């Protein structure tokens, strides 16, 4: 039974779902780094919010971990390259808290426009400072949204509902989507120049980090108000402080900070700053949504292999998973076959998918083939890390999809190119759900791959099979299955034999020394 650790405060609904799905679950919040490292090895799944830091050291210690589920959107507290390299799927819940966070941004905008937190504190203190708090209307003002994705779009709709003019900077926002939303798509400088309120809704990336720095703040309209409910590092806090002190920026409402938890910060204590402790997603509704969603997604993966909302591998639906499994096994076997025979650097890999398999989620199958291909060189590779490793090694990977046109209803062919040669191997899945190789280097055959295989290429001449059989017999190597194929009578032939154990190096040498043998190699699957 898989075991999951919930290490941040999550709605109890998540625990119930794990239990209902037959998954053992422990809730241990507030663990420090060393405590987490000590226990993480026991778990197949880790469910988190933003407090738990999934560092390379945690991943290193996570011997059984298969999935990290983030109940929320940002996965900046998870070391994605380390998780990917270890084959750990990282998933988030991209929509569960979007409305809640957009509402927080709007609430922050009003708090800024009408000095609500400051007026609240003053009134509680019995000061009745009616003339001190003079606000501004939002109606007819320009709201500039930087990042118009899930949350930014909801903020845009709310802004339009408040009779604001909404402009957005987002390089990935299409003109059609902007028109649908009723926002004007603009460049960043234009937004900075025109907006009365600027609200940030991008992820933290190298391009968005420090987007509101001194240079860009200087381009904003005098009296601008800034809202950040996305990530702290989008604003340079020291530059914001200076821009407020100079009187250029009227104020800022911040839910997120460069360093969190933000117990101290250079902006704290400033009258023009409204601050909340990363509360964007903190409503009962959003927390219920993300907890339910993350628990369902993690359970689907741990129990059925279905992948939803992963940020590091392609998705596999629950319906697809059983259909894909035999083809993924085939793809991995094809990769492994080619990988064990390839002793030079790989330059290109092509996967051809023909017939029904071409309609499937071929990225998953390509990742499986790459895993098999790289495994002989790298023990630690898996379907999550294989595409990344292939890219790092400069291997060009391509897919070709075709409708059925050959003798088989559906098949996969893998072709590997090195500087010296090109090798291809093809296979299919029979109605028994078992993969078979159907072609090696253009030679047809039908072979199931067992654990130990002996692969021999030779010239098709009389006497060869007898000689080979007697070498194996002499070495007490039992033959489980014998598969033969040849290009033409007397031409290139291939012999793929399943044997009941290892084929020692000395036996391989004897086979290699037989007349007409080109190559003899022991393979394991
Ligand atoms: N405060 C909170 O509690 C809280 C809650 C939820 C989400 N968030 C954060 O809010 C942010 C937005 O979340 P989302 O769900 O809307 O994400 P999203 O991926 O749906 O939208 C992000 C948008 O940013 C755009 N973008 C990317 N690079 C950009 C760039 N260089 N310049 C301008 N736009 C760019 C993308 O095209 C996309 O449209 C994330 O950082 C997320 O972590 C915070
Ligand atoms: O879990 C939270 O409270 C914050 C979530 C938010 O930052 C997110 O990225 O989804």
Automatic annotation (TrEMBL):
Gene Ontology molecular function terms on file: NAD binding; phosphoglycerate dehydrogenase activity
Keywords: Amino-acid biosynthesis, NAD, Oxidoreductase, Serine biosynthesis
EC category name: oxidoreductase
InterPro entries listed in its UniProt record: ACT-like_dom_sf (IPR045865), ACT_dom (IPR002912), ASB_dom_sf (IPR029009), D-isomer_2_OHA_DH_cat_dom (IPR006139), D-isomer_DH_CS (IPR029753), D-isomer_DH_CS1 (IPR029752), D-isomer_DH_NAD-bd (IPR006140), NAD(P)-bd_dom_sf (IPR036291)
GO biological process, one term: L-serine biosynthetic process
Pathway as given in its UniProt record: Amino-acid biosynthesis; L-serine biosynthesis; L-serine from 3-phospho-D-glycerate: step 1/3
Catalysed reactions, as listed in the record: (2R)-3-phosphoglycerate + NAD(+) = 3-phosphooxypyruvate + NADH + H(+); (R)-2-hydroxyglutarate + NAD(+) = 2-oxoglutarate + NADH + H(+)
Cytoplasm as UniProt keyword: no
Domain ACT: 453-525
EC number(s) on file: 1.1.1.95
Superkingdom of the organism of origin: Bacteria
Functional summary from the UniProt entry: Catalyzes the reversible oxidation of 3-phospho-D-glycerate to 3-phosphonooxypyruvate, the first step of the phosphorylated L-serine biosynthesis pathway. Also catalyzes the reversible oxidation of 2-hydroxyglutarate to 2-oxoglutarate.
NCBIfam families assigned to the protein according to its UniProt record, in alphabetical order: PGDH (TIGR01327)
Family: Belongs to the D-isomer specific 2-hydroxyacid dehydrogenase family.
Protein name in the entry: D-3-phosphoglycerate dehydrogenase
Organism, as annotated: Parvibaculum sedimenti
Organism classification: Bacteria, Pseudomonadati, Pseudomonadota, Alphaproteobacteria, Hyphomicrobiales
């Amino acid at each position: 039974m898989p075991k999951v650790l919930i290490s941040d405060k999550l709605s109890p609904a998540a625990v119930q779902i794990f239990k209902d799905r037959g998954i053992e679950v422990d809730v241990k919040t507030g663990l420090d780094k060393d405590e987490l490292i000590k226990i993480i090895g026991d778990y197949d799944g880790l469910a988190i919010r933003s407090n738990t830091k999934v560092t390379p050291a945690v991943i290193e210690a996570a011997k059984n971990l298969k999935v990290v589920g983030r109940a929320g959107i940002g996965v900046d507290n998870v070391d994605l390259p380390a998780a990917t390299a270890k084959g750990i799927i990282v998933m988030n819940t991209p929509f569960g808290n979007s409305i809640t966070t957009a509402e927080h941004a709007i609430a922050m905008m009003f708090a800024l426009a009408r000095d609500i937190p400051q007026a609240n504190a003053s009134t509680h203190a019995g000061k009745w400072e009616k003339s001190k708090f003079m606000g501004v209307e939002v109606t007819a003002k320009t709201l500039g949204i930087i990042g118009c994705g899930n949350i930014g779009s909801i903020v845009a709709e709310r802004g339009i509902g408040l009779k604001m003019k909404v402009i957005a900077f987002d390089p990935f926002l299409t003109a059609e989507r902007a028109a649908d939303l009723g926002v004007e798509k603009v460049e960043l400088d234009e937004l900075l120049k025109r907006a009365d309120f600027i609200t940030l809704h991008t992820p933290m990336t190298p391009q968005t980090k420090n987007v509101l720095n001194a240079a860009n703040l200087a381009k904003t309209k005098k009296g601008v108000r800034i809202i950040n409910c996305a990530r702290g590092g989008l604003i340079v806090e020291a530059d914001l402080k200076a821009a407020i002190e100079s009187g250029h920026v009227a104020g800022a409402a911040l839910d997120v900070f460069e360093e969190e938890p933000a117990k101290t910060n250079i902006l704290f204590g400033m009258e023009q700053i409204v601050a909340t402790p990363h509360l964007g997603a903190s409503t009962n509704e959003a927390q219920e949504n993300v907890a339910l969603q993350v628990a369902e997604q993690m359970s689907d993966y741990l129990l059925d292999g279905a992948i939803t909302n992963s940020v590091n591998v392609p998705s596999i639906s629950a319906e697809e998973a059983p259909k894909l499994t035999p083809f993924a096994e085939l793809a991995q076997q094809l990769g492994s076959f080619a990988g064990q025979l390839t002793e030079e650097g790989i330059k290109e890999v092509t996967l051809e998918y023909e017939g029904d398999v071409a309609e499937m989620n071929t990225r998953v199958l390509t990742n499986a083939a790459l895993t098999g291909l790289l495994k002989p060189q790298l023990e630690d590779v898996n379907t999550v890390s294989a595409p990344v490793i292939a890219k790092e090694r400069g291997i060009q990977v391509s897919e070709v999809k075709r409708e059925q046109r050959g003798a088989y209803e559906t098949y996969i062919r893998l072709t590997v190119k090195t500087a010296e040669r090109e090798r291809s191997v093809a296979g299919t899945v029979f109605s028994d759900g078992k993969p078979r190789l159907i072609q090696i280097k253009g030679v047809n055959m039908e072979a199931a791959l067992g654990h130990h295989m002996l692969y021999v290429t030779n010239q098709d001449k009389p006497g060869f099979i007898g000689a080979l059989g007697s070498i194996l017999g002499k070495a007490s190597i039992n033959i489980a299955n014998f598969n033969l194929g040849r290009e033409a009578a007397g031409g290139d032939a291939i012999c793929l034999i399943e044997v009941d154990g290892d084929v020692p190096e000395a036996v391989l040498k004897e086979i290699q020394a037989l007349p007409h043998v080109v190559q003899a190699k022991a393979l394991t699957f």
